[in-house]
Write a structure and sequence with these properties.
The protein is mainly β and 378 residues long. The chain is built from no helices and 32 strands.
């Protein structure tokens, strides 16, 4: 797993998928609609960021094999090129439309980060860099994060640079990459340690890894203001985790967050849970935009709970199309349904241990999404 910079991506087949969220005692499932993103005339397109106004940034490869940045706003693509650069990539955008990225010029110190604010370009060069700086993310407060020399992370705030390196095993060479920062100040990235890339996020002074040591390669690439994160495992396996700090306890007791699969590698997520990312396949050179189409929130019961009949079930659904039903299934048999967008009923469920309880929403166009629990019923 390498740096996100200049990984011009491939693509996406149109389709839908659902992902689930657990927040305290409430679980949520989201069905996504997917659409291709392709800069006109490009041979490859990569989507790297999205802000809360649904403005998307990225990069593309033209027919002459030159790399350019772009901004996609209200259905229109606009190319971005740092003046005098041989290559430009836009990697992040904030809610004010400020963009950051990396540009390349000939010479030994050939990678430079940049900020474009109110149409004016400014280079972002960490003083400690020996061969290059890359700016990956910016939040609404103007704080910029990125990496230099493909080895160290940095934070740039109010004209001051600070190096940020993630924890590694004794004797390992520094290898930290910072991918983004959200409006809450959370910092996302990955570090090479123990022979793998380990994705992480930082909230204030609290540092958390996505997975245990020695698990799989991972990177955390984006976070929104809800506390949801997105990222990748290798190149083609994307994930989303919801409200990752909601169940935080002591450092010794906190759990690694549940991950739900996305169609491919995710780059960023906004507050509306729109996600952008990339397919890394030669035959599909587009980037993708994933937009929530149907959302189901299950308020009662809780997963892994012990229940007594009749069981109080509470859920609600919303989406782009009218909701036709909310269904209740136990061990692959439907036991109840509500012909409405809400469910608030006392229901007798089959008695047993480790029952597979599914609460599923259906809309008028056949879209569906579900929350799956394991419960005991007596």
């Amino acid at each position: 797993m390498a740096s996100r910079s200049f990984r011009v991506a491939a693509a996406l087949l149109l389709g839908t998928t659902w992902v689930g969220e657990v927040c305290a005692q409430t679980s949520t499932a989201v069905n996504y609609n997917y659409a291709n993103l392709m800069f006109p005339g490009a041979t490859l397109t990569s989507a790297n960021g999205i802000n809360n106004s649904n403005v998307i940034v990225g990069s593309y490869l033209d027919s002459a094999a030159s790399i350019h940045g772009f901004v996609y706003r209200l259905g229109r693509y606009t190319a971005v090129n740092f003046p005098g650069a041989t290559a430009t990539e836009v990697l992040g955008i904030n809610d004010y439309g400020d963009i950051v990225g990396v540009y390349q010029v000939p010479g030994p110190l050939n990678f430079h980060g940049f900020l474009r604010h109110n149409g004016k370009f400014t280079s972002i060069d960490t003083p400690a860099a020996e061969f290059g700086t890359k700016a990956f993310g910016i939040n609404k407060h103007g704080t910029i994060v990125g990496s230099y020399d493909d080895a160290h992370g940095f934070i740039y705030r109010e004209g001051s640079y600070k190096t940020l390196d993630a924890p590694q095993l004794p004797g390992e060479q520094p290898n930290t990459q910072l991918n983004g920062i959200n409006n809450l100040g959370w910092i996302l990235g990955q570090v090479f340690t123990g022979g793998i890339w380990r994705g992480f996020w930082i909230v204030s002074e609290d540092f958390d890894f996505l997975e245990p040591p020695g698990y799989t390669d991972s990177q955390v690439t984006g976070a929104n203001g809800r506390g949801d994160i997105v990222g990748c495992h290798d190149a083609t396996s994307g994930f989303i985790s919801f409200h990752i700090e909601s169940s935080e306890g002591s450092e010794s007791s906190e759990k690694f967050p549940a991950q739900q699969r996305l169609v491919s590698c995710a780059s960023a997520i906004n507050y509306a849970r729109a996600v952008v990312g990339n397919y890394f396949t030669v035959n599909q050179p587009q980037a993708f935009l994933a937009v929530p189409a149907l959302t189901l929130r299950v308020i009662r019961p809780a997963n892994h709970s012990s229940l007594t009949n009749p069981v109080h079930l509470v859920a609600m659904a919303s989406g782009n199309n009218p909701i036709s039903q909310i269904q209740v299934w136990v061990n692959f048999k439907k036991v109840f349904h509500s012909n409405a967008a809400t469910l608030n009923s006392m229901v007798n469920l089959p008695v047993g241990t480790n029952q597979r309880l599914v609460i599923q929403a259906l809309d008028a166009k056949g879209g569906r999404t579900k929350v799956v629990y394991t419960v005991n019923v007596q």
